[in-house]
Each structure stands twice: as C-alpha cells, then as structure tokens.
Amino acid sequence: MKMPVYTSLLEKKKLEQKSFAILVDPDKVAVADLHEIIELACETKADYFLVGGSLVVSDNLDACVLQIKQACNIPVILFPGSPSQISRHADALLYLSLISGRNPELLIGQHVISAPAVKKSELEIMSTGYMVIDGGAPTTVSYISNAAPLPADKADIAMCTAMAGEMLGNKLIYLDAGSGAKKAVSEEMIKKVSQNIEVPLIVGGGIRNAEKAYLNCKAGADIIVVGNAIEKEPSLIKEMAAAIHQQYALL
Prior knowledge:
With 251 residues, the protein is α/β, with parallel strands linked by helices.
C-alpha cells in the first residue's frame, strides 16, 4: 500500500533522508522532453515530481500529470500558482500561503475561493508556508504575487517568518528564490530556518548544479526542488540526484 505523501516526508525527515523533487512547468516542458525527464527520474530514483507554475496558460496540466502517473510510481505533487491549477489525477497538493508577503489574497483570499474545488478533488492537502526569497532578479512569482521578496541577507527575518508559519499550522515550509533566480537561497538562511522549525523544509530556485544541491541539504533542507536547470539540461538529473541522496547514503 502506498504511503501518503506527507507521511513519507515525515518518515524521511525522521531518518535524515534528503529528497529530490523535479519541478515540471506545463507551459515550458515539451512532451518529448518530459518523456526523457521521467526516464531519468526513474533511473535515479527521484523522490517526487512537482507540477505547476506561476501562470500555466496552456491546457497541459492534466496531460503532464497523467503522463507522469502512467509512466512511473513517483508521487506527483501539485505546486499551483493559482486556485485554477488543480488536477485530480495528482497525489497531493501544496496548499500555498504566501507568508513572506503581505498580500491578503495570497495569505487566505484565494484559498477561500478555491476551498470547495480543492475539497472535491480528494487530493492529499499539505498546507505550506511559502516564502519567496530575493534571488537577485525579478521573477514571475514576485510579479504575480504583487509582494516584495524577503531580502537574501536577512536570515533572521526568514527564521522568524518560518517559525510563525509553523506555529500557525503549516505542515511544510518552502523557501523559494524563484524560477530563473540569479542567486539561490543561501546556506546560512537554510541553516537558520531548519534549526528553528520541526516540519520538513523545502528549498528551490536558482539551484543549477549538484554542488549547490549538496550544500543546501547539508545546511538543513529536507527536499530540494530543481526545475529551470533541468528544463535546459535534463541530464543534470543524474548529478542532482546523486548529490542529494549521497547525504544519507554516507550515514
């Protein structure tokens, strides 16, 4: 029997096992490329697929989720940019609350609108404190959210924000520098946040090589999300997976 996604995340955190999540944006990944990505994900034992994007202007969301589900047993988690990005074919949903910003629509407003559809979907819902970190370049998520990112050098602010998110009941904390970020989230910030929360910590945005993925894990990230770099060079999946999984292979 397949373990619920959140239970698997907690179990891996308990065992100090780091997870590799491949982010698939339905607007950016061609069918042929997705086939290659799925094959590499299976070969390298990637832990999760995240599917979604800030806009998703195409009708490819369901198609992407179904293609992954039909080809492998890797859990598919929705990473929505809006309430309309729901696919009942996925396994779970990151129900994002933008706790780093002060836009009430993304703290609770859109959740009120989406709640009936989300409930009806019967997806596993994982409430997530979403924190956008300044990655050195304007990103789609910052523009769409109409909220300033947290300063990259203010680890204390990130720590306190994450602590507040956890105490408000979020099951996950997600630090994201955004797609196409020039700078990834710093190890200092990751360490400070991870040492002060107990829920699993997701880190993504601007991770372009295996060394950075490794260092983020070492700093305390539980799940590493890579998307943009893999879209450009799918072969990076092997290096990323090896670096992330090496964290517990040596224990």
